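Mods, move this if it's the wrong board.
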Amino acid sequence: MKAKLLSVAVALLALWAVPSAFADSGGSGGFQAGAQSASTNQAALGAAASYQNAVNANVPVSIAGGNVTSGPSSATQTATSDATTDVSNKAKTDQDQHLNQNIGGNSGCYAGCGGAGGFQAGVQNAETNQLAAGVAHSDQNAVNANVPVSIAGGNVNSGPSSATQTASSSANTDVSNKAKTDQDQSLHQNIGGGSCSLGCGGAGGFQAGLQDAHTNQAAIGIAKSDQNAVNANVPVSIAGGNVSSGPSSATQTATSDATTDVSNKAKTDQDQSLHQNLGDRWCGCEGRDMKTQCVAGCGGAGGFQLGVQKADTNQIAAGAAFSNQNAVNSNTPVSTAGGNIYSGPSSATQTATSNATTDVSNKAKTDQDQHLSQNIGGGSCLAGCGGPGGFQLGVQKADTNQWAAGAAFSNQNAVNGNAPVSTAGGNIASGPSSATQTATSDATTDVSNKAKTDQDQGLKQDIGGKDCGCSKDGHDGLSAGSGGAGGFQAGIQAAETNQWALGISKSDQNAVNANAPVSTAGGNIYSGPSSATQTATSNATTDVSNRSKTDQDQWLHQDLGGKDCGCSKDGRDGKDSHDGLSAGSGGAGGFQAGIQAAETNQAAFGISKSDQNAVNGNAPVSTAGGNITSGPSSATQTATSDATTDVSNKAKTDQDQGLKQDIGGKGCGCRHDGKDGRGESKDSHDGLSAGSGGAGGFQLGAQLAETNQLAAGAAFSNQNAVNSNTPSSTAGGNIYAGPSSATQRATSNAYTDVSNRAKTDQDQWQRQQLPVSRI
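Not the wrong board. Structure tokens:
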């Protein structure tokens, strides 16, 4: 590579050092080529696994001929299992390229000289490939248990149970790809007209700027949290006398979180500027520089500009979150007594939360700025001159493909149970049941694709000397038999955006808040009041959105021929004592084509499903030789099942196109009698006199915007809500049932919002000015 660069440098120095030739000399030639290539490949894989078995147990085993007295149980367990995976790829590519070329000048050749030639090619290529995959898995088994086993010939007295369990299982996966590509390219070319007098070849210039950016990103994230949380009070008591159970007020807080955050962010900036100056702009015979460039038989200058910008962005994101939770907060004493059994009140509190959250997003931003400027000066040829020719082609192409899929599943089994089993020869007295259960199962999927494409294109072309015509000595710029200037401009913008989004959310909840004592007594059974509170919420939410914004701005400006040609006051020495192109001249021709094409395809699918089984039950089973007295039942149940799907497609396309074409001299020509034409009209003769070919202009503006949107959404809410008071009593004596005033609020909502919003703005301006021939 160093050897090649050295060879190019030596060649450039040799060309620069060529002495000026005076006759039959070949013109100087220049070559510049700049190539930049950057390839970046990144792969990141991460896995995190946390397995936890946490047991906090109080399990005394007591055997006594007398009494057994148990102290209070207030064990505290805090169990935390975290699995976190952070996988990120960040690639940044900067490519700056500047090519500057100055060729020719006043070469001192007088006849038969070949014109200068210049070549510039700038190539930039940036390719970025990123792959990130993250897996996080948390398994937790947390047991906080009070399980005394007591066998006594006398009495068994159990202390109160107020154990506290806080169990958290978290699986977090953060996967992100961020690619940023900046491409700046500037090509500047000056090709000066030689001071050749006769038979000179015109200068030629070539510019080609190519920018290519490929970005491919793939991100996959999976998070799974499995939790089994048991907070249990299960004393087993066998006594010849009485069994007295202390109150149960254990608190359980169980949280299972599975979170997946997958994001792809690609940003591509392409800036391209091509500037080309060909020939000397000071036209005339002995005008401002007081020298004629070429007098007769001169070849006209020719210019070529090609600007190409291409940006491809492909992004794939997939995320899945699974939260599986089994939360059991149980008071289940087993008592067998020859005497009486006294159960303390049950006021256990359970808060169970299962969250599965998936956030999948693709964000692609592409900016393409392109500026082509071409100045092709009119040669100061007097007769038989070839007119200058200009070519400009600007191409912008942006392809964006985004694919996002997200799934969230929350499975929850929450049981808050008071189910003592009592067998007594005497009486059984149950304390009140006021257990509180708050169970929440959330499955949330947020899938979004956002593509933004900005294309700005400006083409400017000046062909022919603006101030051409006559100098002070009365000779015009291009005289009899001259070939007219020709100009070509084509601007092409193509933006294609394809977005696909799929989101699935599923929440399965089984929430049971139960008071179900089983009592068998030789005497009486007294049941305390039941006022358990259950709040069960199952949410499945899917938000799928595609947002595409395409802005295309295009300006084409073309000036052909001298604008200030015409007569002076005395008919001789004004700006143009003769017109710009005189008798027998070929007229100027102009061509402009502006093409804009924007194609947007969006597809969004969303499914939400919420399945809820909520049971708040008071179902004591009593068998007594004496009387059975049931306390009042005022349990409260609030059950909510929501399935929400929001699917939206929003495509916005703005196309602005302006074509402006000025052909020929506005006020060109002078009178044959040498007088000015102010008294009669601005042009006693037109810019092209007798026998001249008229100016021709062509403008074509095409705008095409195609938008296809497909949205499908489904929401399912299945709810079984049971708030039940179902005592089963068998008595040898009387049965007294307390009042039932249970409250149930059951809500099942299935909501689907599917919307397609497409907005297309097309603005087009065409302006064409052609000279009016007046003979």
